[in-house]
Specification:
Length: 184
């Protein structure tokens, strides 16, 4: 376990300069976590799903972000940057350290990369839900699946022939997994 004095605050994390662009970082319970920058498949899925989410959000007054920081917890500080996120009631991070948004988005989306460990993804999912997210979608480009996690602890696994819908959070949103994965 790390000593409390060694843990970073949001302000300290915001002041860090990481010149190694091969990595992206998050702050998890005060500890800097570095992950390799995602590749082509990840980026293609992010843009494709983001396109569908943005179209839905425009029609419903919601906001979609990509890789924006969300302050999930303050003590110790936890800042996550979901690959995509939807806020039904848009909030701004203006005036906060790093310009990050306080609180979890209504929907957090993580697209798996080869470097993602199962425990790390589970931890991210639990952090989002624990901070108030209503849904978390884990998109697996290799298995061509999406797992939908709900705040009540239930989950649903979708496969290629299924349709990803917004359920009671993004009412009216839908895209087939076949369409989602066709570009990769």
């Amino acid at each position: 376990m790390q000593a409390t004095a060694d843990l970073l605050t949001l302000e300290q994390y915001a002041a860090l300069v990481d010149e190694d662009e091969r990595y992206v970082t998050e702050l998890v319970r005060g500890v800097l976590v570095r992950e390799p920058r995602p590749g082509d498949v990840h980026g293609t899925l992010q843009v494709g799903l983001g396109y569908h989410l943005r179209a839905w959000a425009r029609a419903h007054g919601a906001k979609v972000t990509a890789e924006s920081g969300y302050i999930l917890f303050e003590d110790p500080s936890t800042l996550r940057g979901p690959d995509l996120a939807v806020m039904l009631e848009p909030r701004s991070g203006r005036g906060r350290p790093g310009g990050w948004i306080r609180g979890a988005p209504d929907l957090a989306v993580e697209i798996l990369s080869p470097s993602d460990a199962a425990t790390a993804i589970q931890e991210k999912t639990l952090d989002y839900l624990g901070a108030g997210a209503r849904r978390v979608w884990i998109v697996d480009p290799v298995a061509r699946t999406v797992t939908v996690f709900r705040a009540d602890g239930t989950a649903r696994l979708l496969r290629d022939a299924d349709t990803l819908d917004g359920e009671d959070v993004l009412v009216g949103f839908s895209v087939t997994l076949e369409e989602l994965f066709e570009s990769i």
